[in-house]
């Protein structure tokens, strides 16, 4: 039996903050604002897995009102969600994510992001796809004010 889930996340970009995507620190002049480390890629993937399990969303499991999750390492949150999936008897078949960020270009980071996410999810990096797009100068992404991520995952009963 298969289950599919989607996730979406947006974070505001602010000067002077670090930009972390898929657990990888990006050399950028603006970083993502948020309660945890604001890793939109890890958040979208975790939400997609929770969606596939019909287990609500990240906010349900790790409320941003809980000081425990302040500046949390989002890879840890993703690892916990991945563990929940395995506990429910599912494993990840594949994940695909699209990051929308105006700058910098993410090409040089993609391989490291895929490897970092794959090791967090305990799958082969060939099961985790990360793609990067700009906002073509349009909308909040295009103006460099936000980073957004769309993710989709397929789980299979083990
Ligand atoms: Zn987020």
How would you describe what is shown here?
30% of the residues lie in helices and 33% in strands. It is of the alpha+beta class. It has a 5-stranded mixed sheet with strand order 4-1-7-5-6. It has a two-stranded antiparallel sheet with strand order 2-3. The chain is globular and about 45 Å long. The chain starts with a strand and ends with a strand. Bound molecules: zinc ion.
Topology:
Layout: E1 2-15, E2 19-21, E3 24-26, E4 30-32, H1 40-52, H2 58-61, H3 74-87, E5 90-100, H4 110-121, E6 128-133, H5 139-142, E7 146-157
Parallel strand pairs: 5-6
Antiparallel strand pairs: 1-4, 1-7, 2-3, 5-7
Bound molecules: zinc ion.
In brief:
The chain is an alpha+beta fold and 158 residues long. Helix content is 30%, strand content 33%. Helix 4 links the parallel strand 5 and strand 6.
Per the principal axes of the C-alpha atoms, what is the gross shape? globular
Helix content: 25-40%
Number of helices: 5
List low-confidence stretches. none
How much of the sequence lies in strands comes to 25-35%
Question: How far do the termini sit from each other?
Answer: 9 Å
Bound molecules: zinc ion
Count of distinct strands: 7
Q: Mind describing the biggest β-sheet?
A: 5 strands, mixed
Lateral strand order in the biggest sheet: 4-1-7-5-6
- Order of helix and strand elements from N to C terminus: EEEEHHHEHEHE
Broad structural category = alpha+beta
Q: If you average the pLDDT, what whole number results?
A: 96
Task: Kindly provide the radius of gyration, computed on alpha-carbon positions and rounded to a whole number of angstroms.
Answer: 15 Å
């Amino acid at each position: 039996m298969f289950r599919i889930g989607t996730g979406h996340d947006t974070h505001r970009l602010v000067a002077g903050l670090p930009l972390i995507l898929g657990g990888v620190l990006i050399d950028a002049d603006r970083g993502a604002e948020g309660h945890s480390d604001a890793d939109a890629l890890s958040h979208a993937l975790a939400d997609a897995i929770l969606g596939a399990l019909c287990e609500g969303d990240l906010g349900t499991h790790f409320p941003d009102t809980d000081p425990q999750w302040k500046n949390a390492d989002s890879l840890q949150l993703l690892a916990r969600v991945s563990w929940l999936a395995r506990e429910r008897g599912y494993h990840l078949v594949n994940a695909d994510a699209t990051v929308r960020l105006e700058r910098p270009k993410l090409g040089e980071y993609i391989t490291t992001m895929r490897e970092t996410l794959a090791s967090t999810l305990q799958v082969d990096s060939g099961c985790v796809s990360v793609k990067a797009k700009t906002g073509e100068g349009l909308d909040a992404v295009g103006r460099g004010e936000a980073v957004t991520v769309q993710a989709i995952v397929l789980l299979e009963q083990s």
